[in-house]
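Archive maintenance. Older records in this collection stored only the sequence; we are now back-filling the structure field for every entry so that each record is complete. The fields below show one back-filled record exactly as it appears after the update. Entries are processed alphabetically, and Protein phosphatase is next in the queue.

ARCHIVE ENTRY
Title: Protein phosphatase
Organism field: Cephalotus follicularis
Length field: 242
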Amino acid sequence: MDMAGFYIPKDGKLGEDAFFVNQKKQTLGIADGVGGWSRRGIDAGKYARELMSNSVISLCDESGGTVNPKRVLNKAYANTKAKGSSTACIITLKGRWLYAANVGDSGFMVFRDKQCVYKSPIQQHGFNHPYQLGNSKKSDTPVCADEIKVQVENGDVIVAGSDGLFDNMYPHEIVGILGLVEGYAFPEQLAWMIAESASSNSHDKDLYSPFAKANEEAGFHYLGGKIDDITVVVGQIGESMK
Ligand SMILES: [Mn+2]
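Back-filled structure field:
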């Protein structure tokens, strides 16, 4: 799997999302620090960034091909001391299977033959209130993580992201972007194109976005995209290495 990520913070600074890709361990991770902390003067982006850098450190203990995403997340969580809280999604490829540990509303989709064939479920306590890891008593812990196993095929494209992606782009819009590229596209290019498109949607005040749809389903009225940090990581499944 060839991987690359692209990040568009909403404030033009660091924002509150963080991600990593580790080509050697065939693993990627996404975290979305929860914005509500800023009212208390806490930058939740710090928590998200520390959680992701600790995940990269935890990965060193895993031998290639036997990465256990939940174990990685557990160790990273135990070592993360910053104040704040964050969603987290760690995904690894072993042979023809993706394994993921997911807490909250970041996640991933799998595209095959111009169709979305899989979308990871989100975990939330209530509308717009995702599960989140953190050091406060109210936080969730990695025990809550959804453990996901999905079979993939050669040529599949994995699109992982924070809610800033999924709240602004429907799967068919991502399919549209994947279809713009003839033949092989670099994952850097796809991640950039998808993130730019999500960012443009996020500023469209008249858009019936996935976020607007979710509001409607929860009994609220909202129209437009959702301005948020946008992280996109693309993984292209190639020939099996084993
Ligand atoms: Mn977000």
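Update note: Residues 108 and 163 are 10 Å apart (CA to CA). The pocket of manganese (II) ion is lined by residues 32, 162-164, 228-229 (CB under 6 Å).
Entry marked complete.
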